[in-house]
UniProtKB/TrEMBL annotation, chain A:
InterPro entries: ExoRNase_PH_dom1, ExoRNase_PH_dom2, ExoRNase_PH_dom2_sf, PNPase/RNase_PH_dom_sf, Ribosomal_Su5_D2-typ_SF, RNase_PH. GO terms for molecular function: RNA binding. Keywords: Exosome, Nucleus, rRNA processing. It comes from the Eukaryota. Pfam families: RNase_PH, RNase_PH_C. GO terms for cellular component: cytoplasmic exosome (RNase complex); nuclear exosome (RNase complex); nucleolus. The keyword Disulfide bond does not apply. GO terms for biological process: nuclear mRNA surveillance; poly(A)-dependent snoRNA 3'-end processing; rRNA catabolic process; rRNA processing; U4 snRNA 3'-end processing. This is Exosome component 5.
TrEMBL record, chain B:
It is found in: Cytoplasm; Nucleus, Nucleolus. One of its GO terms (biological process) is U4 snRNA 3'-end processing. PANTHER family: EXOSOME COMPLEX COMPONENT RRP40, PNAS-3 RELATED. It comes from Plectus sambesii. Keywords: Cytoplasm, Exosome, Nucleus, RNA-binding, rRNA processing. GO terms for molecular function: RNA binding. CDD domains: KH-I_Rrp40, S1_Rrp40. This is Exosome complex component RRP40.
Length: 235, 229
């Protein structure tokens, strides 16, 4: 089922003032017909595809007796060095896998494999966070049982001590630090569950970034509701 | 428009002292019911049961479901059957009508069977049978040769089988065909000619997101095209 939903009007191009709004989110669910769940997600200029296969059969090396094995494969478009501020499989896969393992009901399907493949199409900043959001949408599309929903939000700390929410690539390159937060929501309570940081910052910057991310995440979760409403309340 | 709940949402169902059956997509957290899949909440009275109507393509075996399986090989005194789940199911040689140790059913790899799930637990491999508790097949067993096996979402199959859906009765007035719907998202169709079989397959697959009036239009269009208009 193809559904498209856009939320909010900010395009995030200007950087004269502190950006406190997320860029426009657009998504299409079930884009890949062979996957159990999939999504094409666009946030500003960053575009990512994610697909979920499972719960399915696995090889012996990926079989756990008491829970499902979650395998996250991130496919970057460009090879970046391991410590790069951008997204690489070394930083996206563990972040996404850890988040999925706590959000997905893995005890319900022991000895199975849940595979999440995330493909980068365009990086216009905040790629790691967009991968998190796409991962959750793909899991929702597949109907994998979860205890809560999660999303990713990125915040950049600029040299003039300003925090920019969901920065485009131009801004991200000039940042002294980049925070990628994974946030979960059960009903309306939003909580940060994990974070990945690059660069140098003070703890105060971190605290402010967390509260900025928590506010912004509410918008993403509303977007999820609108997407699933569109998809499921037909027929 | 029905409300769609996301995982983690507390559901507006009271968990009082009366019996309450918690179905798929819903789980209990303390004294509240919580959604675990994104979907529409459905419920039924007497006894009160509720479940999430989520759009899922991957089948998870549930005891009592009638599914279409593909024989993939032998394992001792049983066949291994692919029902679309994470693990292969087994069907014993004796789980067919009139089967005895000397009189085995003649099935080979690749054959399709319409069977019922007998055992489905998360820690064990599923088991299916082609007879009921009285030893009668009642429509279960090997499917005839020929025909087309479709893979679709679980929701589509449930809709096809529901009393409210007029797709199959309407189609039955226009064309002659044999159809078997497995709760594992597999539909087997056999008609007089390949063209008609494909037309039926197209109608079924395209009807997933249409409402009843659009479905009769769809049937009309595809059948006319099939008949050459």
């Amino acid at each position: 089922m193809d559904t498209e939903m856009s939320s909010n009007t900010n395009d995030g191009e200007t950087s004269a003032v502190s950006m406190t709004k997320l860029r426009t989110l657009r998504a299409q669910l079930s884009v890949l017909h062979r996957a159990d769940g999939s999504v094409a997600l666009q946030q500003g200029g960053t575009v990512v595809w994610a697909a979920v296969y499972g719960p399915g059969d696995s090889t012996a090396s990926k079989r756990l007796n008491d829970r499902a094995f979650i395998d996250v494969l991130f496919k970057p478009k460009v090879a970046r060095p391991v410590n790069d501020i951008g997204a690489t499989k070394e930083n996206v896969s563990p972040l996404l896998r850890g988040t999925c393992e706590s959000m997905v009901d893995i005890r319900r399907h022991p000895r199975t494999l849940i595979e999440l493949v995330v493909q980068e199409l365009t990086d216009d900043g905040g790629l790691r966070a967009v991968c998190l959001t796409a991962g959750c949408l793909a899991l929702l599309d597949a109907g994998i049982p979860m205890t809560a929903v999660f999303c990713g939000v990125s915040v950049a700390l600029m040299p003039d001590d300003r925090l920019v929410l969901d920065p485009p690539l131009k801004e991200q390159k000039m940042a002294t630090a980049l925070f990628t937060f994974a946030l979960k929501s059960a009903e309306s309570e939003v909580e940060m569950i994990s974070c990945d940081t690059n660069g140098r910052f003070q703890f105060d910057h971190f605290k402010r970034a967390v509260s900025l991310a928590i506010e912004a995440a509410a918008e993403v979760f509303l977007f999820y509701r609108e997407m699933m409403q569109r998809k499921l309340s037909l027929g | 428009m029905s409300v769609v709940y996301l995982p983690g949402d507390k559901l507006p169902v009271s968990t009082g002292k009366e019996a309450l059956i918690v179905g798929p997509g819903v789980s209990r957290a303390d004294d509240r019911l919580v959604a675990t899949q994104a979907g529409v909440l459905r419920s039924k009275q007497q006894p009160f049961s509720c479940w999430m109507d989520a759009h899922v393509r991957r089948y998870v075996p549930v005891r009592g479901d009638k599914v279409i399986g593909v024989i993939t090989g032998k394992a001792g005194e049983a066949w291994k059957v692919d029902v679309g789940a994470a693990e292969l199911a087994t069907v014993s040689f004796l789980s067919f009508e009139g089967a005895t140790k000397r009189n085995r059913p003649s099935l080979k790899t690749g054959d399709l069977i319409y069977c019922q799930v007998l055992l489905a637990m998360k820690d064990m491999e599923p088991e299916v049978v082609c007879i009921d508790s009285e030893g009668k097949s009642r429509g279960l067993g090997a499917l005839p040769d020929g025909g087309l096996l479709l893979k679709c979402s679980l929701n589509l199959v449930r809709r096809l089988l529901s009393a409210k859906c007029a797709l199959l009765p309407t189609l039955g007035k226009e064309l002659r065909f044999e159809i078997t719907c497995g709760m594992n998202g597999r539909v087997w169709i056999k008609s007089n000619s390949h063209k008609e079989t494909i037309a039926i397959a197209q109608i079924i697959l395209k009807s997933e997101f249409l409402n009843e009036s659009q479905i009769s239009e769809l049937i009309r269009t595809i059948i006319d095209r099939c008949r050459g208009f």
